[in-house]
Amino acid sequence: MLDAGADLFRRQGYEGTALKEIVGEGGAPWGSLYHFFPGGKQELGVAALRRSGERYRRLIELVFEGAEDPSTALRQFFSLSAQALEGSDYADGCPVATVALETANTTDALRQVCAEVFESWLATLARFLSEAGIEAGVAYPLALFGLSTFEGAITLSRTIRSTEPLTASGEIVASVVDAALREVPEEST
Amino acid sequence: MLDAGADLFRRQGYEGTALKEIVGEGGAPWGSLYHFFPGGKQELGVAALRRSGERYRRLIELVFEGAEDPSTALRQFFSLSAQALEGSDYADGCPVATVALETANTTDALRQVCAEVFESWLATLARFLSEAGIEAGVAYPLALFGLSTFEGAITLSRTIRSTEPLTASGEIVASVVDAALREVPEEST
DNA sequence: GTCTATATCTCGATAGAC
DNA sequence: GTCTATCGAGATATAGAC
Q1: CA distance A70 to A129
Q2: Among A19, A157, A158, A187, which is least packed, fewest CB within 10 Å?
Q3: Is residue B35 over pLDDT 60?
């Protein structure tokens, strides 16, 4: 049920998704919805976002751990997302961005979860950048920049139905991080 | 009425905004809504997005025309948006991004307008980059990158309620464009 | 715990007088 | 053109049997 909700929220947003749709898609019994989520739709939303946010964070980790440096990891991540978008008819974008924008000024509980998720991704990104030798004061702004570009590129790609924003942005982000890495003194690698 | 609609769509999205709210806020007569927009909410949405999208495009033009080069224009634009966000309790972000994500896979008429708006901004950006001497094949991907980063930074800033994503990203985008400008042969300026 | 039925509300859209 | 009243659909949430 959480997975079905997360998937629908990502595609059509929070307001655009009906509870019946979630229980229908998830094959879960309608009667048990308010047993597990006494807080109703909002509580389900919070739980679904937390779950998909953490899953996405682990995906980031996986890509960075498998790559030789953060720059190639980013290039791969952008390219991977472009593939995922194209293969899903431009539906599988960021699991929280749509809800984040919808609720930034309306439903604070949901906005807060989205903020927590974004910050967990930022912390993960900054950690990998730091571990590659980039100094702490630079790593966090660089993570902010990288995630910003990624989120915006997904927004553009979904809207104009082309992977071009993701691929073009991915190249430049990777090159920016690459330049930062080249400023790292040799001993620290 | 169009302005009231555009404002509400930007803050709380398309699905999250009721028609009554729009006519209420706009002080317009309810009876005339379906006279001017026989297509109902969707037609009003299309018109509102087109209008605010074009207004925003002219704002971009204004900033670029007033700045000495595209790099400083971008820095100013990010900084201006950060101010606008902070001054509006993080409500006045991008006028189309929220609706774009909501409708990318649900309501194609709205998605298409958002795509048109984004593309008009991209064309404007690419034109200014070209006019500054950056070759055509580079200007468009650079515009894609710049707009992507901007859109994502707004998303992050609104969600975590901090201007940090915008300021950090603005600096880096400006420096990337600055580097591209330095590759321009002197004669072409 | 889960089901069915339903209460209550709000939405978008329409009808018809003026 | 604009107003008032209202329709019908679909939403969230609840009640009460099992």
Answers
A1: 6
A2: A187
A3: yes
User: pLDDT by residue (tens digit) across A154-178?
Assistant: 999 999 999 999 999 999 999 999 9
Rounded Cα distance, A62 and B165, in Å: 24
Do residues A167 and A78 touch, judged by C-beta distance below 8 A?
yes
Distance B27 CA to C18 C1' (A): 22
Q: Which residue is nearest to nucleotide D14 (CA to C1')?
A: A34
What pLDDT, on the 0 to 100 scale, is given for residue A59?
98
Q: Which positions of chain D lie under 7 Å from any protein Cβ? A: 1-5, 10-16
Q: What residue spans of chain A are helical by DSSP H?
A: 2-12, 19-26, 33-36, 40-66, 70-87, 97-103, 108-131, 136-160, 164-182
Query: How wide is the angle at C-alpha B161 spanned by C-alphas A22 and A74, nearest 5°?
Result: 75
Cα three-residue angle B130-A74-B155, rounded to 5 degrees? 70
Asked whether A116 and B157 are in contact (CB, 8 A), the reply is no
Contact A102 B105 (CB under 8 A): no
Contact B151 A150 (CB under 8 A): no
CA A10 / C1′ D12 distance in Å? 20
| Structure confidence by residue, pLDDT tens digits, A8-64 | 999 999 999 999 999 998 888 998 999 999 999 999 999 999 999 999 999 999 999
Please state, in angstroms and rounded to a whole number, the distance separating the CA atoms of residues B176 and A176: 8
> What is d(CA A33, CA B3) in angstroms, rounded to the nearest whole number?
39
